[in-house]
Amino acid sequence: MSKQILVSILFFIFSLQVFSQKSIEELTQQLKSTSDKEVRFKILEKLTNKTTNENSDRKVVFLKEYLLLAKHFEEYDLLAQKSRFLIENFTSLGQLDSTKYYVDKMLSYQQYFKDATTEAHLLLKRASYYYNTDQYQKALIDYKRSGDIFIEENKGVINAADARLFAAQVYNDLNDFLNAVTYYEEAYKLYDKLEDNFYKNFTLSELASIYAKNGFHQKAITERERNLANAKETKDYQALYYAYGNLARINFKVQKYDKVRKYIDSTLLYTDSIKNKQQHILSELFLASLNVDYYLKQDNITEAEKYLEKTEKLAKETSAPDFFQRMNYEYQAKVYTQKKDYVKAESALKKVLALKGVEGQGEKVKRAEKEIAKVYGATQRYKKAYEHLSAYLQLEEASNKIIKDNTFLYYQAKFETDRKDQEIFKKKTEIELLEKDKEIEKYKSRVTVAISLIVVLILFMVFYVLWRRAKRKRKALAREIVDLNTEVTTKKEEVNELLTETLTHLRTKEKLADNLNKLSQEKEGVTLKSIIADLKADKLEDSKILVLRKNIETLNYEFLKKIKELHPNLTKTDIEVCSFIKIGFSRTEIATLRQTSIEAIKSTRYRLKKKLNLTANDSLDDYIRSL
Fold first, then answer.
1. What tens digit of pLDDT does each residue of 216-234 get?
2. Cα separation, 596 vs 515, whole angstroms
3. Closest-CA residue to 331 (of 357, 311, 354, 360)
């Protein structure tokens, strides 16, 4: 039954591929059959989506025509958004000049963008170009501006978080401790808002590392404790195991050995939760090395030597015994020195010094220079002791200068922040006082209105009284008028006689009356944008990339078989990247073969180190090539 289901699934997938290909062919025929620009624009929208999703060889041709039509129709946001696929294609092929050309071309249309995040996406692409060409300051400007736009527009929080994280990593590469911390913290807040637990813990791990690197051990402990809290919240028991272990390791540096013991014991609670055999061995190796350090600090050479023997035994059981055995050299030297077996101690320390120049081994080499000077001093070889002590002091001086400078900058920034907080508090107090003044003014206004109403009421009462008095007076006058009417009647005859005489007089002035009447009747006016050689020459064709990728599994059969047995949790992408590393390709070459960006390969390498249970100081390339 299961075989029939498998056959059905394979048939279904094949059908989808055929349908998809047929769909592209149909759209291509439709495109050929019309010259109407609007119709071609709509068809190209679908064609570019399909060819991009399937990484078709024809995508570039369709994308370029789409961009021309988008500009013709003045659809500048669509023009810039679709250009990002073309830019990503050039970046994945290592054609960085073409990447820069198209980004700048699209940004020249900025004034026509309706969506501000269109510019932000383009700035991210240009920042990536600057970073890949070591133009760190220019990369910083674009990363910061891009993140600001996403935040201001309250859109694309994931892009804003990535922009802040990339800026922090550039500052870290520039040894700008203060700005690196600031941008890591901003990235953490955004990832926390997105509930992206992987990148939250990754950012906290970077913060803890940069604090420890610059001597801020208490701050590093704080970030590790936050890491522990996140692991507890998500019930990631393996992460809990290593969180406790890292807390034990960093408490060594501040000499809080009671806490070291507490955290070492806490890791034991989660040992049985690690089921994978190789991961279980690695976790026990990690714990045994912590115990070696702890018992050496307690001057318990017997217990320290017992755990040293355990680390050597466990290293042989790992999938890369030579790699993990090199990690034991420093512990061997410490034990042999304390036992005063200076011959073995010198041999172990020389093996550590042989790691000079290897990425991530700087601090270990510096400590080895100091310890071997002690060994030479104890065996009266003072010239060699002086040489190694001088080398140690030079490394220590350089390290201390960085720490000193960064400490000064950190506390200066903290002081300025405190002053800003005081100013903010002062402003808040002034605002509160102003608010109280406003409340008082409102109260005064209400009192004034109340008084005005009282005055109006009083005036109304006065008016009413006066009105009543006037009414009485009017009644009295009415009576007087009646009396006067009687008197007028008696004198009517006298008035008639007077009117007769007046009429006669007026008649004599009739001409004057007519002229006045005419004068009174006059009118007035009214007035809105070969294969390996080809790879290194940056001319590898897509068809050759496919041939190489299809033959990688045959070239690395034994390696792939072994890594799948050791790490069954790896994805197809993880295994393919491991194959490229095993063969010896660089990050840029891997990005070209994978047809993706260097940033994506960098992220994949970070995830691989965590899945392979490697610490921040371990080399991913050394581990894979040791298998």
1. 888 888 888 888 888 888 8
2. 107
3. 311
